[in-house]
Amino acid sequence: MAARSISTNLFERATGDRNKAVIGIDMLERKINSLKGGERLDNQFNEDSLPLSDRADFCYNLTRESKNKLDIEQAKSGLL
Length: 80
Fold this sequence. Notes:
- The protein is mostly helical.
- Helices cover about 85% and strands about 0% of the residues.
- It has helices at about 1-15, 20-35, 35-45, 50-75.
């Protein structure tokens, strides 16, 4: 749930439209689920024998990198 909330907030910052963000993230989540992306990621984590803390760090780092990239693009556009 936290990932969805963070993703929605990042999408909203990028688009400036909360409704578009909610709908976009919902569509993205449905696509990920239809491709079994979550299961595939879990399987990869299990194959690599990653402990839960490392899994959380991996997801946190992906989110942080996305936020940083968005911040840079917004700064370039003068939106910050």
